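Support request, please re-run this one:
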Amino acid sequence: MKKLSLLSLFLLAAVAHATTTAYSPPVGGMTIPAAATTDNFVSVALTNPAAWVGTVASVSGSDITVSGTPGWGTNAFASGTYYYVRMLSGAQKGHFFSITANGSGDVTIDNAGLNLSVINPGDTMEIVQYWTLGTLYPASQAGVSFTASPTVFSIKTQMLFFDATSTGINRSASAIYFFLNGHWRKVGDVSNSYDNTIIFPDTYFVQRNSTSATVLTCVGRVQPGFLGTILTATSSVQNDNFVALAYPVNVTLSSSGLASSGFTATTSVFHINDEILWFDPSSTGINHSANAIYFYYNNAWRKVGDVANDYGATVLPAGSGFIIRKAANGATSAWVFSTGI
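Re-run finished. Output below.
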């Protein structure tokens, strides 16, 4: 079970502020246990503190100029460290964009397929450092949050990552990482360090432990405002989206907002559109199947095998993940969840 340390929640100002923006989101801690000989779905429900918060002055292509004179160092957010812009208001609220370059008062971002022209002057935004394998699972946590591998012939904890740009269902991991000789390595490339592998806030990865259970303790900030993610559909086949809700409290299907944002309802039980593949965090084993599949039909959440009852109270567990399987020939859409903060 994922546990949020509620007693540790308190208000903490961000690392840096814009000249006129007050910013004090809750900060706390969360423990995420990972069972042995099990595929554990892990997502980071708390983020790093904001490195900067302020407003947009103008947008030109993939460049955002901010208000004021922050005086950032050239590529301070894009060289050797990894940061993203997350919009706090406006038409793209909740969505995040990787920073590829920056000047003293502007950032160049990857638009992630979204329309940046709808970002307007005055919209608020923040700059946040990504979690990476090396920062979420540092070497000092070997034996606690993961198990180091003694040799390449005896791999212990593995981290399975999935490529969001691939399509189809039941996709295999696109990369597998393990810890060896003080650094994270990649299966197929043990000579280089992969400590800087980015952990995106809107997706999960699988922590596959061998014979030892572990516990990750994550300390960070509750993201304020809105959380946005893109749910990709394809023209010919169903497509799996590996989704996480970067929020440290359990959310029910009914309160998720999916029914009105990003999810295509089913109009006939003989032809189900979008589906949620739900995985019980208490399940054990490798490559285990979804414990239940849900869809939205006739103004209620239904379960494959039981269309008569409403499953809106089903919990999407904090610190875990699930799959949204978009229907073939469906529409790519955005899911925006309000954190209420």
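Residues 176 and 187 are 6 Å apart (CA to CA). DSSP finds one helix and 25 strands in the chain.
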